[in-house]
Automatic annotation (TrEMBL):
SUPFAM superfamilies: TPR-like. Pfam families: TPR_12. This is Tetratricopeptide repeat protein. PROSITE patterns: TPR. Keywords: Repeat, TPR repeat. InterPro entries: TPR-like_helical_dom_sf (IPR011990), TPR_rpt (IPR019734). It comes from Adineta steineri. The keyword Protease does not apply. Gene3D superfamilies: Tetratricopeptide repeat domain. TPR repeats lie at residues 197-230. The lineage of its organism: Eukaryota, Metazoa, Spiralia, Gnathifera, Rotifera.
Length: 287
C-alpha cells in the first residue's frame, strides 16, 4: 500500500472513535510473527457527497451508551493519505473517505465497466460458437464482479446464464436464473411493462419443460399482457407468447383453446416468415 492508493473493505466496517480501545485491540496481535498490527485512522468530510453511507451508532437510541462507534457500509472506498510507524510497533494508516465525484474514482469505475463490457461481449461470442461451458463460466465471473446496485446489468447476466442453461437442458438452473432476472426487473419496472414479457415467457418455457403446465400458462399470460399493453407492439414477440401458450394447451389436451392461440399467433406473425412454418405445423397437428 502506498500514499494516494485507494483501499476498500468488502464487508461492513465497524469502527470506534475511542483511540485507546482501538490500540488495545491492535496490540492483541503484536506478538504474532505472522501478523502486522495496523491501526486505521479515518477522516470523514461531511460536506462532500459520498457513495459510501455511514452512521454514528451512538445517535441511535439503542446504541446511546456505546463507545461512539461508526459503521461504514459495504465496499466503502478510502484514499491512503499517510502511513507511519505508531506506538508499540503498530503501523498507523491514515485514510479519508473519498467523494464519489472524484475524478480518479470515476476513471476507475469507467475502466472496470469497460472490462466488464468486454467480458460480456466475449461471453456472447462463446454462445454464438456454441461453446456454452466457457460462456457460462464468463457470465458467472461477471455475476460475481457486478455490484447489487447495477440491477440492469445483473438482469442481462442472469438472462444469459438462464439461456445457456436452457440450451444445455439444465431446466432447474435455467428456472432459477430466469426467475432472478424477472424479480430484479419487477423491482424497477411497472408490473405490465413490455420489457417484462420475454422474462415471463422464459420462465413459462422452463416450467413447460418441467411439466408444470398450469403455472407455465400463468407466466405466458403475463407475457401476453405485457406485450399487448404498449403502443410499441412487437408482433413477432407476441406471436411467440401465443405459440408457447398453444403448445401447453395442446399438451393438456385442450386442442380447441390451443387452436385459438395458434390462430392468434398467426395473426401477429404475418410479417415474420420465420414463425409461420412453426405455427402452421401446430395447426396441422391439432386440426
Amino acid at each position: 500500500m502506498n500514499i494516494n492508493d485507494l483501499i476498500s473493505f468488502n464487508t461492513f466496517l465497524f469502527t470506534t472513535i475511542d483511540r485507546k480501545s482501538s490500540l488495545n485491540f491492535a496490540k492483541q496481535s503484536e506478538n504474532d510473527l505472522h501478523l502486522i498490527p495496523v491501526l486505521f485512522q479515518i477522516e470523514i468530510d461531511r460536506s462532500k457527497s459520498t457513495s459510501s453511507p455511514f452512521i454514528a451508532l451512538d445517535e441511535l437510541d439503542y446504541y446511546h451508551d456505546s463507545d461512539r462507534h461508526v459503521l461504514f457500509t459495504l465496499n466503502s472506498i478510502f484514499r491512503i493519505v499517510h502511513i507511519q510507524r505508531g506506538e508499540d510497533k503498530i503501523q498507523q494508516i491514515n485514510l479519508i473517505l473519498i467523494d464519489d465525484n472524484e475524478d480518479r474514482l470515476k476513471n476507475l469505475k469507467h475502466s472496470k465497466q469497460k472490462q466488464l463490457n468486454g467480458f460480456f461481449s466475449l461471453g456472447q461470442m462463446m454462445m454464438e460458437t456454441n461453446d456454452l461451458i466457457k460462456a457460462k463460466s464468463i457470465f458467472e465471473i461477471l455475476l460475481k464482479n457486478t455490484t447489487v446496485s447495477n440491477q440492469k446489468e445483473l438482469v442481462s447476466i442472469h438472462r444469459k446464464i438462464g439461456l445457456i442453461d436452457q440450451r444445455m437442458k439444465d431446466w432447474t438452473d435455467a428456472l432459477l436464473h430466469y426467475k432472478q432476472c424477472l424479480n430484479m426487473q419487477l423491482s424497477f419496472l411497472p408490473p405490465n411493462d413490455r420489457f417484462l414479457g420475454p422474462s415471463y415467457a422464459g420462465v413459462g418455457a422452463i416450467l413447460m419443460k418441467l411439466c408444470n403446465y398450469d403455472e407455465a400458462l400463468e407466466y405466458y399470460q403475463h407475457a401476453i399482457d405485457c406485450g399487448r399493453n404498449t403502443s410499441h407492439v412487437d408482433s413477432s414477440l407476441i406471436a411467440t407468447y401465443y405459440i408457447g401458450t398453444g403448445r401447453i394447451l395442446h399438451l393438456l389436451g385442450k386442442n380447441s383453446e390451443a387452436r385459438k392461440n395458434f390462430e392468434l399467433a398467426l395473426t401477429f406473425a404475418q410479417k415474420s416468415h420465420t414463425l409461420l412454418p412453426e405455427i402452421e405445423h401446430y395447426l396441422t397437428i391439432i386440426s
